[in-house]
Amino acid sequence: MDVQKGDVLVMKKKHPCEQKADKMLVLRTGMDFKLRCMGCGREFMIPRVKAEKNIRQILRDGL
């Protein structure tokens, strides 16, 4: 799966914050993804395999 820095991922599961956001901004890629919740702003690391299973859609600015 071609995920790049700056992409917004629409996830199958919502983040358990007050806003229940399902969109995550990609800050770093590699073996792990560093993501930022678009609702509460929390940053967290998640293994690539786990993240790729839960991606519903990839939103890019240029496309």
Protein architecture, described:
By secondary structure, the protein is mainly beta. Helices cover 10% and strands 41% of the residues. It has one helix and five strands, in the order ββββαβ. A five-stranded antiparallel beta sheet has the order 4-3-2-1-5. A hairpin with a 5-residue loop joins strand 3 (32-37) and strand 4. It is globular, with a radius of gyration of 11 Å. 10% of the residues are buried. The model has no long low-confidence stretch (mean pLDDT 92).
The helix content is: under 10%
Class from secondary-structure proportions: mainly beta
What gyration radius follows from the Cα positions, in whole Å?
11 Å
User: What coarse outline follows from CA principal-axis ratios?
Assistant: globular
Strand composition percent? 35-45%
How large is the count of helical segments?
1
How is the biggest beta sheet arranged? 5 strands, antiparallel
